[in-house]
């Protein structure tokens, strides 16, 4: 895990303007800001008194990635999948994949994108991406936009969990994923909505046949709403997943409610 400290942010951070998103992995932190996508990575130094390697608290190097994603398109969502060595970034106009040269996770690695792919909004994805979560149990990325949940497999195949698969469409707001330490148990997807409450189901792909098609009942969404579940408001703005339990997520409805 990476902890963001003052040393990770340069002294001229005031020139960044608004930070829209943040993601950390492999001793690097990515910031989606007003001036583009910024990458700040820790580097390894060799101690002058011995040959042992150490991390210096001031060994952060920051540069922008505007040559890959235009600076005038702030990244409002970010997710780095270490096992794929890809940083996914969502903007108002496109969904980007930045493929890096290496992914050994060691501080000082040359974390530089070597390839960039983009999916324009309006194609596979109807609207700009709101949130992303990586499901390590099924090796797939869950991507949510206001109309649908999308699943991106490690081989680049997109699947859709939208209106025709039993999901609410048009007012999705956020996404969470809960997984237990038991590899035999499925992860669960949670989706917040505006005016409709909270939705929950087993992570898609729990029953894939030999043709890589999900043979489970994709309509098995649970809708949690009303006085029993969300007595104060059906507008779910934020979700926080419990890393221990597959059945627990913390919900923040509209301002002023609990």
Report on this structure.
There is one protein chain. This protein has 258 residues and is mainly beta. Helices cover 0% and strands 44% of the residues. It is built from no helices and 18 strands. Strands 1-2-3-4 form a four-stranded antiparallel β-sheet, with no helix packed on it. It is globular. The two termini are 29 Å apart.
Element layout with pairings:
Blueprint: E1 19-25, E2 28-33, E3 36-46, E4 53-64, E5 77-81, E6 86-90, E7 94-100, E8 113-120, E9 131-135, E10 140-145, E11 148-153, E12 158-161, E13 172-178, E14 188-193, E15 198-202, E16 222-224, E17 236-241, E18 249-253
Antiparallel strand pairs: 1-2, 2-3, 3-4, 5-6, 6-7, 7-8, 9-10, 10-11, 11-12, 13-14, 14-15, 15-16, 17-18
What would the keywords be for this entry?
single chain; 258 residues; mainly beta; 4-stranded antiparallel sheet; 18 strands; 0% helix
């Amino acid at each position: 895990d990476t902890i963001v400290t003052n040393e990770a942010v340069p002294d001229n951070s005031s020139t960044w303007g608004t930070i829209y998103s943040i993601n950390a992995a492999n001793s690097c932190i990515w910031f989606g800001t007003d001036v583009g996508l910024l990458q700040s990575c820790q580097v390894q130094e060799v101690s002058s008194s011995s040959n042992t390697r150490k991390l210096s608290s001031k060994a952060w190097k920051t540069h922008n990635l505007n040559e890959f994603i235009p600076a005038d398109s702030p990244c409002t969502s970010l997710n780095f999948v270490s096992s794929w060595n890809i940083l996914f970034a969502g903007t108002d106009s496109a969904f980007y994949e930045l493929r890096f040269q290496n992914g050994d996770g060691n501080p000082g690695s040359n974390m530089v994108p070597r390839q960039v792919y983009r999916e324009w909004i309006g194609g596979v994805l109807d609207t700009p991406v709101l949130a992303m979560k990586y499901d390590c149990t099924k090796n797939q990325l869950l991507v949510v936009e206001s109309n649908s949940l999308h699943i991106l497999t490690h081989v680049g195949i997109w699947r859709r969990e939208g209106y025709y698969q039993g999901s609410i469409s048009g007012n999705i707001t956020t996404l969470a994923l809960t997984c237990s330490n038991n590899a035999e148990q499925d992860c669960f997807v949670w989706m917040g909505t505006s005016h409709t409450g909270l939705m929950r189901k087993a992570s898609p792909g729990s029953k894939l046949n030999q043709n890589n098609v999900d043979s489970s009942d994709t309509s098995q969404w649970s809708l949690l709403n009303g006085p029993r579940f969300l007595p104060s408001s059906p507008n779910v703005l934020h979700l926080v997943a419990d890393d221990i339990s597959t059945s627990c997520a913390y919900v923040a409805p509209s301002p002023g409610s609990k």
